[in-house]
Amino acid sequence: MADGNGRTLADRDALRGRYKAVSRLAATKVLDRLDKHCRNFIARSPFLCLSSAAADGKADVSPRGDPPGFVKVIDEHTLLIPDRSGNNRLDTLSNLIENPNVGLIFFVPGMEETLRIDGRAEVVAEHPALAECAVNGSIPEVGVLVHVAHAHLHCAKALKRARLWDAGTQIDRTDFPSLGQMIKDQIAELPLSAEEADERIEAGYKKLY
Q1: Rounded distance, CA 65 to CA 61, Å?
Q2: Count of CB atoms within 10 A of residue 71's CB?
Q3: Are residues 104 and 130 in the same domain?
Q4: Range of the domain at 70
Q5: Domain count, the chain
Q6: Can you give the pTM of this predicted structure?
Q7: Are residues 106 and 201 in the same domain?
Q8: Are residue 38 and residue 94 in the same domain, yes or no?
């Protein structure tokens, strides 16, 4: 049982019994390589989410974004994701060193279908393709080399339900606390005001590379 939160489904048969059978299309659409459509999708994508897990299983999902085509397809089984400057926590990269299993989901603005890829990753430096990832003359020192195991296009139901690309669903940003305010509220001992935190965040945004 799940302590008042409903019934825990503890095995795959119990889970499967709650759903219809998998359609033939859904069961057979998974590729073991990047075909021309996957490559075209990646070339047009400016944003992806990367999932990883540490050796102890603790999971993380990290957003990655750059101009369209920032992920380089090396061949039909391999792609390279450049690592840009960030908060230097290195959560994802540390996870991948401990546990190379990785999952990716690519988005293209205005397109409601997505591309999902999973495989095994290496954290690499001095890879020749990193030079092709330069933006404003800045070449990333490190990248994530992904050896593709599975790739498939994902239908648009989730994004349609979310109305993700619908401008009418965008919130009034003045109706939501700033990042600096939220961090200040979360970290009582932060030696900055919310305004000072926002100023630092905005200064960081001006240097993306």
Answers
A1: 13
A2: 23
A3: yes
A4: 25-162
A5: 2
A6: 0.92
A7: no
A8: yes
Rg, C-alpha atoms of the chain: 20
List all residues 6 or more positions away from 78 whose beta carbon is below 8 Å from its beta carbon: 145, 146, 147, 148
**Six token digits for residue 208:** 């993306």
pLDDT at 51: 98
Do 56 and 100 share a domain, yes or no?
A: yes
Residue 167: C-alpha distances to residues 109, 157, 162, 172 (Å): 12, 18, 12, 11
Please indicate, yes or no, if residue 73 is contained in any of the structural domains.
yes
Same domain assignment for residues 85 and 60: yes
- Shared-domain flag, residues 29 and 51: yes
If asked whether residues 42 and 130 sit together in one domain, one would say yes
Sign of CA dihedral 159, 208, 69, 74: negative
Which residue in this structure is represented by tokens 């080399």? 145
- Tens of pLDDT, residue by residue, the chain (209 residues): 455 778 899 999 999 999 999 888 888 899 999 999 999 999 999 999 999 999 999 999 999 999 999 999 999 999 999 999 888 899 999 999 999 999 999 999 999 999 999 999 999 999 999 999 999 889 999 999 999 999 999 999 999 999 999 999 999 999 999 999 999 999 989 999 999 999 999 999 988 88
CA distance 201 to 186: 16
Q: Which two tokens stand for residue 164?
A: 């993700």
